[in-house]
Amino acid sequence: MVKTKKLSKKEKGEILQILSERFHENSTRHKGIEWKAVEAKLHKAEVTLYSLQQMESSGGEPDVIAYNKKTNTYTFCDCSAESPTGRRSLCYDDAALQARKANKPKSSAMQMAAAM
Question: Cβ(108)–Cβ(91) under 8 Å?
């Protein structure tokens, strides 16, 4: 059983502030989407907020890029200009990591995702 990881009230406030600032600084990414609506959904989505915080803490820049009216869902994407420093030099999965002979990375993307 996977334990849901939760953010403290302070961490929630911090990530929401970062996301709000990025949202307003990059309005061309999400024309027609209002921050208040996104924020209201995020307050109810603990797992999503945690994932966004993990993206941010590993050097990413998550931002809203779309809204689906049918499902009433927002799509977030890492909008950093290059691979975040905390997510570089990884193999895809454990099999690829084990098969690597030279310049072996410390981990795999699948291991990192599972840890998040």
Answer: yes
Tell me, what DSSP letter sits at residue 108? Answer: B
| Mean pLDDT across 45-49 | 92
Residue at 90: amino acid letter: L
SS3 83: coil
Helix (H, G, I), strand (E, B) or coil at 31: coil
Query: What does pTM read for this prediction?
Result: 0.80
Neighbours of 110 (CB within 10 A): 16
- Residues 6+ positions from 53 with CB-CB distance below 8 Å: 7, 11, 15
**pLDDT averaged over the chain?**
89
The answer, yes or no, to whether residue 30 has pLDDT greater than 90, is yes
- Residue among 59, 51, 64, 39 at smallest CA distance from 6: 51
